[in-house]
Amino acid sequence: MSGKNLPRFIMCFCTGECPGFAKLELWKLINFVRNELDVEYAIVHPQLCVDDGDRFLKEYLRDGETNIIYIIGGCDPRMQKKMFKDVFKEKGLDMDKQLIPLDLRNMSTEEAMKRVQEAVEQVLKK
Ligand code: SF4
């Protein structure tokens, strides 16, 4: 893995109340990702698409750091792109290359693990 940045995984858990994540065991998923997959780290945010989520992304994403891939587990990828495009642009990041939005709704924990694993493997293959 020398010289290659590992992807960073953010799980957006939709307040913890969303029926779409009712089957997902959040901590089982996060611990699997951080312990078993080649990621820099894995974190959870309760709701990235509202004001405090926006403030978080503005602090978290680093200006011009164009070599990092962010995998965000959450809702519909098109929705995620719509909601996060401004902050990626503001930070000088290329959302099309640096964001991998995963729809993990209505999945079992095992299905979500597999989906994230595939995304991480896809990033590392490049
Ligand atoms: S970005 Fe999607 S998954 Fe995250 S809180 Fe908003 S609607 Fe829910």
Written account of the structure:
The protein has helices at 26-36, 51-60, 77-90, 95-98, 109-125, and strands at residues 8-12, 41-45, 70-74, 99-103. By secondary structure, it is an alpha/beta fold. The protein has one domain (8-125): 3-Layer(aba) Sandwich (Rossmann fold), CATH 3.40.50. A four-stranded parallel sheet has the order 2-1-3-4, with helices on both faces. Strand 1 (8-12), helix 1 and strand 2 (41-45) form a beta-alpha-beta unit. Helix 1 (26-36) packs parallel to helix 5 (109-125). The longest helix has 17 residues, at 109-125. It is globular. The model has no long low-confidence stretch (mean pLDDT 96). Bound molecules: iron/sulfur cluster. The site of iron/sulfur cluster has 11 residues, from helix 3.
Keyword list:
126 residues, Rossmann fold, alpha/beta, binds iron/sulfur cluster
Summarize the structure.
The protein is an alpha/beta fold and 126 residues long. It has helices at 26-36, 51-60, 77-90, 95-98, 109-125; strands at 8-12, 41-45, 70-74, 99-103.
